[in-house]
Amino acid sequence: MRILVAVERERGFSAAAQVLGLTQSAVSHSVRGTERKVGAVLFERGRKGATPTPAGAAAAAHARRVLRLLDTLVAEARGAVRGAAEGPLRIAAFRSAALHLLPAVLERLAARHPGIEPEVRIVRELGEGTAGEVAAGRADIGIGTLGGTTPVPTGLIGDALIEEPYALVHPAGHPDPRSLPLVDWHENCGSYTRDWWRRQDWIPRATVLTEDDGAVLSMVSSGHGMAIMPALSLTGAPDTVEITDLGAERPTRSVGYVTTPELASSTAVRALIRELRAL
Predict the structure, then answer these.
(1) For position 154, what pLDDT does the model report?
(2) Same domain, yes or no: 167 and 155
(3) How many structural domains does the chain have?
(4) Distance CA 233, CA 255 (A)
(5) What is the dihedral of CA 155, 12, 6, 134, to 10 degrees?
(6) Which domain holds residue 261?
(7) Cβ(153)–Cβ(142) below 8 Å
(8) Quick one: 246 and 269 in the same domain?
């Protein structure tokens, strides 16, 4: 399983062998044996390396989750002997959650469980987002946006933590902010708020599209347009911008956590969820 994961991550047999301290032939032999046992081709071989097939991607995801459970077994056993939670805790979070939610949560977690070692990665909420990192076995818990008819992706478990409203953000003191061009970013406004957006004939097509919400605030602060942003993104907004409520029909965004059923009972994940729910 470790060889399978390494080949999928490194996209090559030679690179995986180097990382694992094995020979290329040993890695190739192992993968061929796994493919025979599974009954499917896991990698397309070529001059550019090894590209996982759909079967290979699925197998690698399962392998990462199994390997993570083995690591959790060791951490939980050692923690039980010492009477304290310990070991790494891999967290995937989107940018504004990592900036404005996690610092206080991790501070409380460290005070109560100093043996837990959080590892935080910022993941863009596009495509599979933070939930995809958890499903693929690259994160133990994901902090992301939930919504739509399926709040938590199939095969994972989780719950909403906060419901944050969207607001109109514009340069302070502007007499007619709705006349300004729209500044937006790719991660803004998931599918669950698109219906609201479509009903607003005053919202123009974005003329400025940035990489993240921090850049949006900077552009609006400099007078280059207005934006519609969720509350987390507006934490610590400068005095040069003004935030206007969009009324009772304003859209909202649910922020929550997702994890795997098998890791949900682990000491480290349970400890983090307790701190997140105390927000």
Answers:
(1) 83
(2) no
(3) 3
(4) 12
(5) -30
(6) 87-161+255-277
(7) no
(8) no
- d(C-alpha 172, C-alpha 31), whole Å: 60
**pLDDT reported for residue 149:** 44
Q: What are phi and psi of 78, to 5 degrees?
A: -65, -40
The predicted pLDDT at position 79 comes to: 86
Residues of the chain with pLDDT under 70: 147-151, 189-192
Q: Considering only CA atoms, which of 147, 153, 142 is closest in space to residue 272?
A: 142
Identify the CA nearest to 191 among candidates 122, 125, 98, 257. Answer: 125
Give dist(CA 250, CA 215) in Å, integer.
23
**pLDDT at position 12:** 94
Question: Which pLDDT score is estimated for 143?
Answer: 96
**Alpha-carbon gap, residue 90 to 108, rounded angstroms:** 17
The whole-number pLDDT of residue 171 equals 96
The region, left, alpha or beta by phi > 0 then psi within -120 to 50, assigned to residue 55 is alpha
pTM for this predicted structure: 0.87
Pair 253, 164: CB distance under 8 Å:
yes
Q: Give yes or no: residues 62 and 197 share one domain.
A: no
